[in-house]
Amino acid sequence: MNFYSLNKIAPNVSFKDAVIKGLAPDKGLYFPEKTTPLSKEFLNNIENYSNTEIAFEVIKQFVADEIPEKELKAIIEETLNFDFPIVSIEKNIAALELFHGPTMAFKDVGARFMARCLGYFNKEEKTAKVTVLVATSGDTGGAVASGFLGVEGVDVVILYPSGKVSDVQEKQLTTLGQNITALEVYGTFDDCQAMVKTAFLDEELIATKNLTSANSINVARWLPQMFYFFFAYKQLKSKNKDLIFSVPSGNFGNICAGLMAHKLGLPVKKFIAATNINDIVPNYMETGIYTPKPSKQTISNAMDVGDPSNFVRILEIFENDDSKLKEVLSSYSFSDKETQQAMKEIKEKYHYIADPHGAVGYLGLKKRGMDENEFGIFLETAHPVKFLNVVEPIINETIELPKQIKEVIDKQKVSINISSYEELKQFLVNA
Questions:
Q1: Between 20 and 30 A from 382 (CA), which of 25, 228, 300, 373?
Q2: CA gap 401, 249 in Å, rounded
Q3: For position 210, what pLDDT does the model report?
Q4: Residue 328 domain-assigned?
Q5: CATH of the domain at 303
Q6: Confidence tier at 326 by pLDDT (50, 70, 90)
Q7: Among candidate residues 195, 352, 363, the one with its CA nearest the CA of residue 277
Q8: 124 contacts: CB under 8 Å, gap ≥ 6
Q9: Are 224 and 260 in contact (CB under 8 A)?
Q10: What per-residue string of b and e applies to 248-278 under the rule 16 or more CB within 10 Å gives b?
Q11: How confident is the model over 333-383, as pLDDT tens digits?
Q12: Edge-to-edge order in the sheet of strand 130-135
């Protein structure tokens, strides 16, 4: 399987090279050269497959023979060593919980898969040390730190916006040590992401450093996110309902993976990209004009993105045809006030504690509405404990700390403050 740059200037590369490079030399995101729909027999009998077997069927065409079948299955087995339950909320709405991994966020899947792929390539090819450079608006940093901790031949450098991630999120990315370094940036997530992209295009830097990204721009972080849409279908297939997925969306990697799952044949009637007031994509769906803006801070901080990188991949899936896109995707934005009200309502009416991002997903389903033949799933992308200062005052209840959080909450934060790309470059050169 080859991957091409969406800017169409750089040469095509293998899966391995796409993983190691992260971003193409022409600044484009990599995209698979072709996708082959999964067999009807597989989809019709999906309930008879384990999650590992499903994930292997979904991902194997993209990895091809670059990782042998035995090793790829072992990577998947290690990646998916936790559950992905569906929890009923009301008659025709359920939450797909993606927070049962080590850092209690959906990004554990992509981070663990990518780390193990990179570890395999380094081990087999004995490539030069790789520096994974990643920007985070919240959960990516912790998931990447955990996924790559101790991986031989890989150093991880995480940029995060100072004061704009939760206390728990900050502890998860600043306390591990070993091969993980956290850089605390005076600015927004967009500033962090811009620095990372600049580094990848800095010829002087990349001449001396083997850089790659673990953001969802990396194909090994993005594509495994298809898995849990198939896992949800497996659990809900017997309902014989048209499925509607509402995905809390920031950098749009998660919903883009869902749309790729749909391209592979997953029977989904509609996807909803639910955003906070950073409403670039909802505006595009209304006007046809894509206008990036500086991101605004909200209580659903992982979605505070003013120029979502993966939307260009979504356009590619639909061949840049807005009419085809709108048949499958809708997008709505919601304020913090609406999000808080939804969290309160979900707790009072249905005795379920949603995090701010999941609540935005829930609002997406409620805004669209559903008929009797439809069933809505919103993605609970992170455990509410990661947003204690937001959640507890709304539900008027203390949330017990799970063991994953207890392990880091009292550890000492270690970070390096930077405020410019030049400071980032200096750190990387000297590292």
A1: 373
A2: 26
A3: 84
A4: yes
A5: 3.40.50.1100
A6: very high
A7: 363
A8: none
A9: no
A10: bbbbbbbbbbbbbbbbbebebebbbbbbbbb
A11: 999 999 999 999 999 999 999 999 999 999 999 999 999 999 999 999 999
A12: 210-213, 130-135, 154-161, 180-185, 416-418
- 85 lies in which domain range? 80-102+226-398
Helix (H, G, I), strand (E, B) or coil at 90: strand
**Residue of 426, 409, 408 lying closest to 417 (CA atoms):** 426
CB 30 within 8 A of CB 3: yes
Q: Give tens-digit pLDDT for 154-211.
A: 899 999 999 888 888 899 889 988 899 999 999 988 899 889 989 988 889 988 888 8
Q: Residue 281 domain-assigned?
A: yes
pLDDT tier for residue 272 given thresholds of 50, 70 and 90: very high
Could you tell me if 286 and 329 are in contact, meaning their C-beta atoms sit under 8 angstroms apart? no
Give the 3-state secondary structure of residue 72: helix
Neighbouring CB atoms inside 10 A of 49's CB total 15
Residues 175 and 167: their CA atoms lie apart, in Å, by 12
Residue 36 within a domain = no
Among the listed residues 16, 107, 197, 234, the single catalytic one is 107
Rounded to an integer, what is the distance from CA 342 to the centroid of its chain? 23
**pTM assigned to the model:** 0.90
For residue 378, what are the β-bridge partners?
95, 246
> Does 63 fall in a domain?
no
pLDDT above 70: residue 235? yes
| Count: domains in the chain | 1
DSSP states of 21-82: H-S-TTSPPEEES---PPPHHHHHTGGGS-HHHHHHHHHHHHHTTSS-HHHHHHHHHHHT-S
